[in-house]
Amino acid sequence: MSVNYGSKRTVVGAHYGLRDWLSQRVTAALMVLFTVVVLVQLVASKGPIGYDLWAGIFSAQWMKVLTFSVIVAMAWHVWVGVRDIFMDYIKPVGLRLALQVFTIVWLVSCAGWGIQVLWRL
């Protein structure tokens, strides 16, 4: 038996929330793994912690690929979280759209800058 909740009811696809919840957990797990890898490398290093050590850590190709993956994961993680906040608390559609566009541009710019710095090493 169907119940009519009114014309303003929004229906979304099945498991829409599950996909966002799962993406947040997977990206967070990747960021934790990255943090552990960097901390292990710092603890295992000899000598002072300076530019040379940091450049050495991030100069290996596997570390660049891992860091690139984390930059993309972090941008996605932030986008899902901020988008949900905007959808929950910003009711005017025009303002919400403008904030979402600004957020996308900002995240792509930050990710591009991070990747540019990473591949210069």
UniProtKB/TrEMBL annotation:
It is found in: Cell inner membrane. Keywords: Cell inner membrane, Cell membrane, Electron transport, Heme, Iron, Membrane, Metal-binding, Transmembrane, Transmembrane helix, Transport, Tricarboxylic acid cycle. GO terms for biological process: cytochrome complex assembly; tricarboxylic acid cycle. The chain crosses the membrane at residues 26-44, 65-82, 97-119. One of its GO terms (cellular component) is plasma membrane. A ubiquinone binds at Y89. It is a multi-pass membrane protein. Its cofactor is heme. The heme is bound between the two transmembrane subunits. Pfam families: Sdh_cyt. GO terms for molecular function: electron transfer activity; heme binding; metal ion binding. Pathway: Carbohydrate metabolism; tricarboxylic acid cycle. Heme binds at H77. InterPro entries: SQR/QFR_C/D, Succ_DH_anchor, SuccDH_FuR_B_TM-su. Membrane-anchoring subunit of succinate dehydrogenase (SDH). NCBIfam families: succ_dehyd_anc. This is Succinate dehydrogenase hydrophobic membrane anchor subunit. It comes from Acidovorax temperans.
